[in-house]
Amino acid sequence: MNYGVVIKILGYLLLIESALMVPSLLVALHYEGFDWTSFLISILITAVVGFIMSRSFKYRENIQAKEGLAIVGSGWFLVSVFGALPFVFSGTIPSWTDAFFETVSGFTTTGATIIDNVEILPKGILFWRSFTHWIGGMGILVFTVAILPMLGIGGFQIFKVESPGPTADKIAPRVRDTAKILYTTYIAITILEILLLVLGGMSLYDTLLHTFGTVGTGGFGIKNTSLGAYDSTYIHLVIGIFMMFSGVNFSLYYSFFKGKWREVLKNEELRQYLGIIIIAVVLIALDIYTIMYDSFGLALRDSFFQTSSIITTTGYSTVDFDRWPTFSKAILFLLMFVGGCAGSTAGGIKNIRILVLLKIVKREISKIFHPRAVIPIKVDGRSISDETVAGITSFFVLYIIIFILGTIIISLEGIDFESSASAVAATLGNIGPGFRFVGPSTTYSQFSDASKLLLSLFMLLGRLELFTLIALFAPKVWKNEILPKNR
Amino acid sequence: MNYGVVIKILGYLLLIESALMVPSLLVALHYEGFDWTSFLISILITAVVGFIMSRSFKYRENIQAKEGLAIVGSGWFLVSVFGALPFVFSGTIPSWTDAFFETVSGFTTTGATIIDNVEILPKGILFWRSFTHWIGGMGILVFTVAILPMLGIGGFQIFKVESPGPTADKIAPRVRDTAKILYTTYIAITILEILLLVLGGMSLYDTLLHTFGTVGTGGFGIKNTSLGAYDSTYIHLVIGIFMMFSGVNFSLYYSFFKGKWREVLKNEELRQYLGIIIIAVVLIALDIYTIMYDSFGLALRDSFFQTSSIITTTGYSTVDFDRWPTFSKAILFLLMFVGGCAGSTAGGIKNIRILVLLKIVKREISKIFHPRAVIPIKVDGRSISDETVAGITSFFVLYIIIFILGTIIISLEGIDFESSASAVAATLGNIGPGFRFVGPSTTYSQFSDASKLLLSLFMLLGRLELFTLIALFAPKVWKNEILPKNR
């Protein structure tokens, strides 16, 4: 492990973070909030530490898998620690654990909160809290494009934007191009949503914060009843649709604008994603209409919003879906695991993996009749390598294992099974709210500090596609060159 | 599909079943119960139908995969329909659906019951009910040895008793030998448990019925409080230990008696199985001792019994474990999925599959550091083929899918999430009791007929290793020769 390059890059990361805190400082100053000093101090501390780290070493070597792992793993952790400073310094979240939980939840675009009364927070702090979602979403796109293919983690080789078959010398420019496409899309969606929400009569401040939460598929609300506070079908629909948009592989928008809309429409992952949404919306609407709604239109509206919110792992709510019948809740619970598409800001297992897993099962059934046949797994007409298939199944198995063990450990809080299981699913899948004890009308504040830290770990695990973080604990990563040669 | 041979063999199956009802008739006569006539009629009907079917066709061809599937699938169904006759005719279970559910539960060695007050049933009926467990256990052994390797389903090729590498002409004698070993073990364990229970002061009748439920890992109780009615640590321990024994790969007993005890002790599946039991027993004992028990010894005894009962998918209970804290319940819930070892009468996913899945995850982590390495999956020092690995992962994925979809559908009953999920897990894993609505102190009688039939399907799916039953629905199976040439 080359510690020099890791520390240097982490330093740059902190410098960037300190710069990203400036808008929140300006917001605080604009609204003349008491929180502006906390931002000033946080920016200074983060910048100074970042500067020292970035200057400590002079390494200029290539980053290998080990260093990539270390940078990503410690990077998200470090950024969350420093990102928590404004919460602590302003006194809005006095506990370090709570502030860390909230910041991890922000950067991982989870949206699980420990703040019981969000409406009393100063505007600068609220802005920073939601802005972490937007930054986090951006971070995930880099991670997906630049880091995961390098590490070949969890079968994520499957995510390729343009031509398949990587050749070593072409990787760097392609990554840069892809990243550019994704950023452009991300920013375009952001601007479009801002425009539409402002047109719908939402204040600019509320619009910005909700847009950050939507396109980053984060879900931090700024009202205690989340989006239930806005009694407007237009706003519910705009946010519902933009959440759905944010769960789509961003590179498909590029293909779409390049006129390849036939290719987009044929995309198997997109079809499955939209298919699941349609089925879930209809089933839930029928269920809640039968049992508790007077109007089918209203049932459909709420069902669409909640389905879109949960499958994209955003976590906004317009109603307390924890009070819905078990059938609807069970469908939402399933969606927590499905998640969005690869190459989006959504979390969860992701549709491409589910698609491949379903094809593996189908193949196994065929094999009973044709025991000697070699049947390749194909997605969008292209064969998936055995290695990628192995990566995807391992990911699924590991996801389930972490979910189960997590549920067992969290149940030590003395809460019921449904609360415990949904708290783990909602953090691991980067959703936010779960059911009962962690339902949309409550918060994570009631957990012990130990559980809060563990749930923070689940958020990071989910966000970093499990293996990135787990591989970090392999002793191998930390071997070799315990201290770098300081040239 | 060769319908002739299928119908013929199903006919023989019914003839065997009618013979297997005779002991129950004798028990009914011995206790002078009103149920003896229902057995007489059932035996006659089953025998006549069986006789006609077995004589209808004269086919003598080899059984291929298609026919194997059809025989196994329809066989378990048919035997359950006819096995339900005594319950209906005696009026003890007047509803056909209920009687079918109870019989499927018996033959699949699940032990889920719809009988609210089991203590008022006549002795012949109770005997038949428990005897179906014992027959079912025997049926599973045949199935594991003779059918699964032929179909190569779900990676079950991994279960091999003696030398690996099958050669076509050697399969038949090996199957016969293996079957013999398994039967002998099955009967030996049965006799041993009968002796020990009778020595412990249990009446012969109660002993027989509990032994059937133990070695078949079924779990039908004959008291409303299951084994809680027997206030004897000795009895709890004997049954607890014999359940654990019945979850071990039976061929290991053979190896053990052949003096290969070192091989047995090194068996990775056995080690994992025992390891999980030890960890679960200790964790649950500590949890219930801290929260609700006065004596650690008692906590340990109850924890051991329940752990052994659930992991082996038996389902007996000595206490109402549904009232245990969530942590203990969550562990038990996990054990429902783990199940026993391959080549035993236990259900669930089974330890060998879990073992391989864990190794796949471990390999994936190694691959991050050695992207080009080809690392084989080894169990007991032998490499597992890629095909078997694919079979095992497909099985796992399908198991989870059925569990999730099942939970969603069953939740339409209007019950809570924990009840719905545990009902599906407990039927799919052939356990019996779950939590809350289906806890050990309640029964499945409250479900609608549609749900009872669906839960029966889950029991069969779990028992037949999923793929056997699912492949049966492939149109391919039913194509070709729609009617056989009647020679």
Overall mean pLDDT of chain A stands at 90
Q: How many strands of chain A?
A: 2
| Backbone CA Rg of chain A | 22 Å
Q: In whole angstroms, how far apart are the ends of chain A?
A: 16 Å
Global outline of chain A: globular
Distinct helical segment count of chain A: 21
Q: Helical content of chain A, roughly? A: 55-70%
Q: What fraction of residues of chain A sit in β-strands?
A: under 5%
Report on the biggest sheet of chain A: 2 strands, antiparallel
Provide the low-confidence segments of chain A as ranges.
Answer: 160-171, 481-487
Brief rundown of the structure:
The structure is a homodimer of 487-residue chains. Chain A is mostly helical and 487 residues long.
Can you describe what's shown?
Chain A is an all-alpha fold and 487 residues long. The first copy, chain A, has helices at residues 3-20, 22-30, 36-56, 65-83, 85-89, 96-107, 123-151, 171-199, 204-215, 233-246, 250-257, 261-266, 268-291, 296-311, 326-338, 351-369, 386-410, 417-428, 449-463, 467-471, 475-478, and strands at residues 378-379, 382-383. Chain A has a two-stranded antiparallel sheet with strand order 1-2. The longest helix of chain A has 29 residues, at 123-151. Residues 160-171 and 481-487 of chain A have low confidence and may be disordered. Chains A and B meet through helix 4, helix 15, helix 16, helix 17 and helix 18 of A and helix 4, helix 15, helix 16, helix 17 and helix 18 of B.
